[in-house]
Write a structure and sequence with these properties.
It is built from eight helices and 19 strands. It is elongated and about 120 Å long.
Length: 399
């Protein structure tokens, strides 16, 4: 192995234990009977174990294993893990190579495990496998295990290689119910979809004095001739609506079934943000009472999706202060004042609108609502299809 070895050892397989039992039986029989044939058989058996040990070590020499895995995953969805194997030996191949993760930190239901039957001298190959995280958070792959049981399968020659990799696991991203979307002014058919801003080329916005660098085509000649001073036209541009998802988990420790409700609220926030970004809206995030930094920019795009989902993935409920009215204040810029706020809280009794600026439209969603179990649909869960269940087009879940 070309990386620093953490630990190398031999281990007996189940077949190896049976073989050792047979060896002990042959040894006892040979000692009791003093039969030459049994001694010959004992020598063959011991020689087989020695060959397994020597070949296992030889086939793993000068074998380079490199792991390739993405930085992000989604809870409950398989994530591809690639192992690249390069055999730097000149004469000897590598056979029956098994690669898996020996030490990792995080909730994983399926551990990546790959197998290479034969790799010739000077050759390379790519072994593809996958892991499935079960919860949002951080997964640390710390150590990969490479072993060889060739040729008889009695002994495993194992090498542990230190290879640290951190993976951010996003919360599950589901489809939003159409009836839930209808509560929002932004998503409803009768709501506002665009707002005029100066600086575009759609409609007339107003006049102003000419400044150095303005295009000659924008000069309003009739008004300039009337006032005796060059005046230019300003046009408008339509900007997409803005949504700020406000997550209020301040009372998770006191409400019944608080941790489970908090996780459902985080999943609902993720689905709402992904739906807005998929429709090219500007989306922001606020977490009430959270002492750790959160993104303050309200914008659109794939990079914003990644930033927001990473913030949801790394929420530590223990870091949320139960009573923190002034811990986080809403943004006071124009974008935040024109946004619609989606306030997601745990219960109706603990609902608070202290994060919503005065005069802004808002949609209040309480996770103790009897209909909250129908707000989200996850494609991986059993049940009727999304079209029959009345769910909207799913948000992107690829990372």
């Amino acid at each position: 192995m070309r990386k620093h070895r953490h630990m190398t050892y031999y281990e007996l397989t189940f077949t190896g234990f049976v073989f050792v039992g047979v060896t002990c039986f042959v040894l006892i029989a040979a000692l009791n009977s003093q039969n030459n044939i049994l001694f010959w058989a004992l020598g063959i058996v011991l020689g087989t174990l020695l060959i397994s040990a020597v070949l296992g070590d030889l086939l793993l020499r000068r074998l380079e294993v490199t792991r390739s895995v993405g930085e992000h995953a989604v809870a409950g969805e398989p994530m591809e893990v690639h192992y690249r194997l390069v055999n730097h030996k000149i004469l000897w191949p590598s056979c029956a190579i098994r690669i898996t993760e020996a030490r990792f930190l995080g909730a994983v239901s399926v551990i990546p495990e790959g197998y290479c039957l034969h790799l010739g001298p000077g050759q390379s190959t790519l072994v593809m496998t996958h892991l499935v995280p079960t919860h949002r958070g951080i997964i640390e792959l710390r150590e990969q295990r490479v072993c060889c049981s060739f040729p008889f399968g009695f002994l495993n020659r194992a090498v542990h290689v230190r290879a640290l990799r951190r993976i951010t696991v996003y919360p599950r991203i589901g489809m939003l119910n159409r009836e839930l979307l209808a509560r929002s002014r932004t998503f409803s058919s009768g709501g506002s979809t665009t707002s005029p801003r100066r600086g575009g080329s759609d409609e007339f916005f107003g006049l102003r004095e000419y400044q150095s660098g303005d295009s000659i085509r924008s000069i309003h000649w009739r008004r300039s001739a009337h006032t005796g001073q060059l005046m230019v036209k300003e046009m408008t541009t339509d900007t997409p609506p803005t949504i700020v998802v406000t997550l209020d988990l301040r009372h998770w420790a006191t409400v019944p079934n608080g941790p489970a409700l908090a996780e459902r609220a985080i999943e609902l926030a993720a689905a709402w943000m992904c739906r807005g970004l998929m429709d090219h809206f500007s989306v922001g995030l606020q977490i009430a009472g959270y002492s750790l930094p959160t993104p303050t920019v309200i914008t659109a795009g794939r990079s914003q999706r990644q930033i927001l989902l990473e913030s949801l993935a790394t929420i530590d409920l223990a870091a949320i202060k139960p009573t923190a009215p002034d811990a986080v204040s809403p943004q006071e810029d124009r974008t935040a004042r024109e946004a619609e706020y989606v306030v997601i809280t745990l219960t109706e009794k603990t609902a608070s609108l202290d994060m919503v600026p005065t005069g802004c439209n808002y949609t209040l969603l309480c996770m103790d609502d009897p209909d909250s179990q129908y707000w989200l649909y996850f494609p991986t869960q059993p049940g009727p299809s999304a079209a029959m269940a009345g769910f909207a087009t799913p948000a992107e879940s690829s990372t």
